[in-house]
Input
Amino acid sequence: MRPYLRNTLAILTVAAVTGGGLLLPVASASAAPVPAPAPKADFNGDGFADVVVGTPGAAVGEVRAAGQAVVLYGSGAGLAPAKRQLLTQDSPGVPGAPGAGDAFGSVSAVGDFDGDGFSDLAVTARGEYNNAGHLSVIWGSKNGLSSGVALADPDKLPVQTPQNRRIWGAKLVAGDFDGDGKDELVVGAAANAAVNGTLYTYENIARTGAQPAPVKTALGFRLTSSSEGIAAGDVNGDGHDDLVLAGTANSLNQYVPGSPAGLVPAAAKPVGPGDGQAVGDINGDGYGDIVIGNRYGAKGGQILVSYGSAAGPSATPVAIDQGTPGVPGADEQNDGFGVSLSFGDVDGDGYQDLAVGAYGEALDTVTPTGTTSVSVAGSVFLFRGSADGLVTKTGVQAMSRNSAGVPGDARRAEQFGVEVKLTDTNKDGKADLIVGASDADGVNAGSVTYLPSSGTKVGGTGSLQIVPAQVGLTPFGGLSFGAHFNH
Output
């Protein structure tokens, strides 16, 4: 769950929609296989990336907080609120039934789980079964997302208590961890402090609803309950995706490599503290690089960059914050720099660029009576990739509601940048930026801002702000539309 500085529902948010300068040092690397990209969300197979935005706090009819998944479908014009699909547990073919507090859409991940060429959506109703969680896989098709199947918790507890509980589907991510060319779904079951975490890997999920036997991977540390604490990518260039996930082993994230036999927790390595993770090839050397976001690091938050190699992630990550030369703004308390992360190639040069959210940053706004400081307004920073690594001294694009080409007005506690995603929604070969703001309209209902790539930057022509009413949701305090996007 993305953190909020104002009162919000204590549940995760996900929804489905139709329709430089100083160059950070990197270790020299020999030739390696190019890592497979993370599964792109393309539910109808039209080549345009789709985005799942989550609203587990949304009502379904009169059922409060049953949860909805709003799916925004990509097109030649990018994203538009009219081209959407709302999924609930009351939708035809979607497993389960809406219940108060079920929080359907609280966690989601995308991959082709049945091998038919269409992206599928794995989605959790975190609050169902007395907060034990309910997991569904909804199938993609030429018409978009439709029916699905439920994946039952193979180790479900007979009774949930504060002392002995687990949350099925608390973490979801897709990748090819055994290198066989097929997407697998990894499901994390968060447990209480007395129990170490377990990962469940599913492959070839059947449309019949027959329950597949997952590969269980016992971890030597407890999993956090945050859905954001997981990412996948090929860090060591061996053709198998690896995992980066947040646990509570000395408060560090863990790198867990893949292999022909799947995940190998015995070879796990710590990769720094923080609650945000992303994997992408910044320098184009064929190895995935790990970025950890630590919104409590430095003074106002920081990111830690561990470059990949045949031996895995570098042992000494490079720290970047708003005090790093060339990074716009200032390193100030509670900025939350690093709260959200996403990789994508914005300029089409073959290097992965990095979007970083700073949801707590204050903005100076000019009013008729003078300049006013707007607290917790939020900003997003776009760093460029290059052959020498992440570029920090020049060319960092800072975006807020005060920026030209960004729609909307700065508001106190808007938290612009609480979530970010880079993905090519208009099929022009360049990643566009989607930004979530959990309190965009002053009542904590939230919004999603679409900033298309011009080839040199994001924003400007074609940009738009999408608010809940435009996608068929009823805005209310605590809805937090835009606080979570799909993995």
In short: Confidence is low (pLDDT under 50) at residues 1-39. DSSP finds one helix and 29 strands in the chain. The CA atoms of residues 91 and 133 lie 19 Å apart.
